[in-house]
Protein: Tyrosine-type recombinase/integrase
Organism: Nocardia uniformis
Amino acid sequence: MSNDRQTLQAAHQLLSQLGITPEDLLRTSDAANVPTFREFIQQVQEAVSPATVRAYRPYWNRVEECWGDRAITEPTALEIRKLSETYRRTTVARRNSRNGRGATENLIAAIRCIYKHAQDDGFIKPADNPAARVPKPRRLPSTRRAIPDRQLSEIIRVASTTGNDPDLDALLIRFHIETACRRGGALGLRLQDLDDENYCVQLREKDDTVRWQPISRSLLRAIRDHTATRAPADVTGADQVFRYQNGHPITGRRYDHLWERIGSHLPWVAGEGITAHWLRHTTLTWVERNFGYAVAHAYAGHTDNTTQTGATTTYIRASLEEVAQAVAALTGEPHPLCLQADNVSSDSLR
């Protein structure tokens, strides 16, 4: 026993002479198991959703270029600030850019995602998370707005009369105007998401939200005609709805080409950076003005977040039938869910 104590004392004395603490030895042992950014980003990619990968992949590429072979525990908060500032200065300046604020915000969010998983796996402690000590730029109010009727008509005209597939582009524009869905909602629409009885489509959008959205009978028929002429013979209900003339499903690139083409014909579209999301703003603004906040909230497919909207939204949720009434007014076509709502309303008054 005394020999063990003497050996331990000798070891402490030797470490003291070398300027090394027992904690240093533990950190050295742990450091050997810490992955590099290149290794860990690959693991994170496999653990998050495809939408997250699409959003963060450009920024993770930048991190790999700069720090790919470094251990994820090495960079400091100052280094993350420097990287984000360098990225901000080198981003492509567009007419609607805001001095690189969005790029900086997204880069920091992408780095925080890495460190959140590193923290969950025990590679770093919450107090040692350098990304948490780097604030994002304050988000400025969105420049998006409702598009006036005259300009909206011009967008529809260009989309439906130019390009190599005006039928597809006109249908996409109409779908976004009528449903106010995000781009991902259209790209993710499947054949099994079409409800021919209730004139609805099922939309799956960001944050894994799923909702039924009423549409007009004529739009539903146009979608059916589109799939009947373009979907291959072996198509199943789980296959994508919107397709090119060769039968292949469209991707986000179709939107890029569509708005680039519209911008070449309408300079104000390119100047303001108008995209499909502006159509969402346009429809929801109209719905809110004519049917109130609760219906617009439901029409948008927003989830109840009491920290942003207040607890009142929990009690004033609009029904699917009320959304259908807004669709009927927007399109000028009767909707079967409106008739059901009228019957319920009449019965409740008796």
About this structure: Residues 101-120 form the longest helix (20 residues). DSSP finds 17 helices and three strands in the chain.
